[in-house]
Write a structure and sequence with these properties.
The complex is a heterodimer.
Chain A (H helix, E strand, L loop, with lengths): L1 H26 L46 E5 L3 E6 L4 E11 L8 E5 L8 E9 L14 E3 L9 E6 L4 E9 L4 E10 L5 E11 L14 E6 L2 E6 H10 L3 E7 L2 E6 L3 E7 L6 E10 L2 E9 L4 E3 L4 E12 L2 H11 L14 H18 L2 H15 L1 H8 L2 H6 L1 H10 L4 H15 L7 H20 L42 H16 L6 H17 L5 H38 L5
Antiparallel strand pairs in A: 1-2, 2-3, 3-4, 3-5, 5-10, 6-7, 7-8, 8-9, 9-19, 10-17, 10-18, 11-12, 11-14, 13-16, 14-15, 15-19, 16-17
Chain B lengths: L2 H21 L5 E2 L2 H27 L7 E2 L8
Classes of the chains: A alpha+beta, B mainly alpha.
Family (chain A): Belongs to the OXA1/ALB3/YidC family. Type 1 subfamily.
Keywords (chain A): Cell membrane, Chaperone, Membrane, Protein transport, Transmembrane, Transmembrane helix, Transport
Subunit structure (chain A): Interacts with the Sec translocase complex via SecD. Specifically interacts with transmembrane segments of nascent integral membrane proteins during membrane integration.
């Protein structure tokens, strides 16, 4: 009895956790979209001046109130898919807009802005520079104005930045861009002085605040790196606690192949080597400034280069900044040798299932012209694939019906003793050679498969802003309808917590129907939980992406249809075998 | 119980109280596979208990008649 209470307590706690999770998610509404690009120059610098050594870059935001500094020269960046700028002051790529993606589903919604200048709260930029390992050579800093040769930067024309430190060293950076989201930067220092200098080249990505994350534990957002074939992921939260005990460094690694960057649900910035064999040291750093968290990913060679008088040293890296499109990442992996670059998409533990699923869904989506239809078709094929397993299990269904009187008798006799009743039932199954359950193994095999599909739907950028029939405009967003205002009939906007969309209700009803056909758990308390599951799930999934709820509802419907079909098939079979037998002339 | 056995027991209990209510109870045996696992781990320890449970789950398929299948008694 005590154990029962303990278990009930556990179940209750799990329930509370689930409800808390839903509450938490509905109380933190989706991130507010950053202002459209055109407004960016009007915002000042609301954050306190940075205190790290690399400070003065704050002026780059060029607030009109600070006329003391001349505006920095900028180089426009455009290749058809991205638009942005590189600031010649400090050599920062600090503006990048993705032309193929919009913030919302509305036609005139602003384009997605990935990178933004340092002075803004949503500042997010890439920068290339040098550190004087000898402690005396002047190196370019955040306020250095580089000299620009060429421009604007496009897929056809690279741009060269140069800076002379006045004591013999000339720094150079050649920036190029491909047709998609990959930048190439070749840094070079030419020593015209009469002494050797020791310099460390580096490239870094800076993010001036912690972004609003989707907050689902099946999706990684934060620092991500592949280092010699090993995937490393550090969330912003873990990064903060790691950094607190390691002087600001949340992760550090050295490898001869791989990449490192910051990953959002759909977007990525990542640094990687441009030349084979170049070993790279990568780090993920947390820099608290006041109560704002700054994040940095940087890469550098393991050791500083000593450049003799008259010599030169070079360091070539690539920067990816754009949308995580699976075919594009595959292409960069194969053509540019960016190791395991497709793992930037969080395919998870079941990579070997999720990746092929992804290709299949993507292909179906393009074939049918609608990603929602692709989900329906793909789920249907999966069910078809597992049909033999289910069919075999339900073959004994109609035989069961013949035994119904015997089973009722057992149930009546052992009403007081469920354990004994079950044992008697099992004995009956054995003597009659039937069994109503399909078994644990088929279920165990199917769980990872259906979880994989769920995961793919969750991470696929193809689902973003993809419409479906009726009122669904975006499969990756929650269903906007709500029971609590009668699906829009009442002029009333219920609080976020009271969100019960139509598709969630459909899901709940199908789940309830499907459960009716499933055997119940033997334990009475568990059976109670079992009965409440459809209700719990309806509320729990209400704020999930609509595509997932549609998948779930469709999956339930297919399960019900499958069971009905098999039972009818079985009935026919039974009748066919009975009819000749009654005539007494059944052929052997 | 060893820490390993305790962890396994926790995992099976978690399954029974969270996953099983969702997917339903589909076992062809008595005791059910999860109850069998709990008993096997308690009687035979984490390692041997896991082996027994794995073999039981592999048996629990539509081609096996199922029925009564208690955990074998401990050897000593």
């Amino acid at each position: 009895m005590d154990q029962k209470r303990l278990l009930a307590a556990i179940a209750l706690s799990v329930g509370i956790l689930l409800i808390f999770d839903v509450w938490n998610r509905t109380m933190n509404p989706a991130p507010v979209a950053p202002p459209p690009v055109a407004h960016e120059q009007t915002s000042g610098s609301p954050v306190p001046a940075p205190v790290v050594p690399a400070a003065p870059g704050a002026e780059v935001s060029a607030a009109p109130a600070a006329p003391a500094t001349a505006p920095a020269q900028t180089v426009a960046v455009a290749n058809g898919r991205v638009e942005g700028r590189i600031s010649a002051r400090g050599l920062q790529l600090d503006q990048l807009v993705l032309r193929d993606y919009r913030e919302h589903t509305r036609p005139n919604s602003p384009l997605v802005r990935l990178l933004a200048p340092r002075g803004l709260p949503e500042g997010y930029f890439a920068q290339w520079g040098w550190t004087a390992a000898d402690g005396r050579t002047p190196v370019p800093g955040n306020d250095t104005d580089w000299t620009v040769t060429g421009g604007p930067l496009s897929a056809a024309s690279p741009v060269t930045f140069t800076w002379d430190n006045g004591v013999g060293q000339v720094f150079e950076a050649v920036v190029s861009l491909d047709d998609n989201y990959m930048f190439g930067v070749r840094q070079r220092v030419i020593n015209r002085g009469d002494q050797a200098v020791t310099l460390l080249p580096w490239a870094r990505i800076r993010r001036e605040r912690t972004p609003q994350t989707a907050g689902f534990f099946i999706l990684h957002e934060g620092f991500i790196a592949v280092q010699d074939g090993r995937l490393n992921e550090v969330t912003y939260n873990d990064g903060k606690s790691n950094a607190a005990t390691a002087r600001g460094t949340a992760y550090e690694g050295e490898a001869s192949a791989g990449w490192a960057g910051l990953s959002d649900k759909y977007w990525l910035t990542a640094l990687t080597r441009a030349e084979d064999g170049q070993r790279l040291r990568s780090a993920f750093r947390h820099v608290p400034e006041g109560n704002v968290d700054r994040w940095q990913v940087d890469v550098a060679p393991p050791t500083a280069a000593t450049v003799p008088a008259g010599g030169e040293a070079a360091f070539a890296t690539r920067l990816f900044a754009g949308a995580k499109e699976v075919h594009l990442l595959d292409r960069y992996r194969d053509r540019l040798g960016v190791q395991d670059f497709d793992k930037a998409i969080d395919f998870g533990w079941f990579y070997f299932i999720t990746k092929p699923f992804f290709y299949a869904l993507d292909w179906l989506g393009r074939t049918f012209g609608n990603f929602g239809v692709a989900i329906l078709v793909f789920t249907f094929s999966l069910k078809l694939f597992f049909f033999p397993l289910a069919n075999k299990a339900y073959k004994s269904m109609s035989k069961m019906r013949l035994l119904a009187p015997k089973m009722t008798e057992i149930r009546e006799r052992y009403k007081e003793d469920p354990a004994k009743m079950q044992a008697e039932m099992m004995a009956l199954y054995k003597t009659e050679k039937i069994n109503p359950a399909s078994g644990c193994l088929p279920i165990l095999i199917q769980i990872p498969v259906f979880f994989a599909l769920y995961k793919v739907l969750f991470v696929a950028i193809e689902m973003r802003h993809a419409p479906f029939f009726g009122w669904i405009q975006d499969l990756s967003a929650p269903d906007p309808t709500n029971l609590f205002n009668l699906f829009g009939l009442l002029p009333y906007d219920p609080p976020a917590f009271f969100h019960l969309p139509a598709w969630a209700l459909i899901m709940g009803v199908t789940m309830w129907l499907q459960q009716k056909l499933n055997p119940q758990p033997p334990d009475p308390i568990q059976a109670k939980i079992f009965q409440w599951m459809p209700v719990i799930f309806t509320f729990m999934l209400a704020s999930f992406p609509a595509g997932l709820i549609i998948y779930w509802a469709w999956n339930n419907l297919l399960s019900i249809a499958q069971q009905g079909y098999i039972m009818r098939l079985d009935q026919k079979r039974q009748q066919a075998s009975l009819t000749p037998a009654q005539g007494g002339a059944a052929p052997k | 119980m060893s820490p390993g056995a305790l962890a396994l027991k926790g995992a099976v209990l978690a399954y029974q109280w969270t996953v099983r209510p969702v997917i339903g109870c589909n076992c062809r045996f008595l005791p059910s596979c999860s109850d069998y696992a709990l008993e096997a781990i308690a009687k035979h320890g984490a390692l041997h208990g896991s082996v027994l449970s794995t073999r039981r789950i592999l048996r629990c398929n539509p081609w096996h008649p199922g029925g009564l299948d208690p955990v074998p008694p401990a050897r000593d």
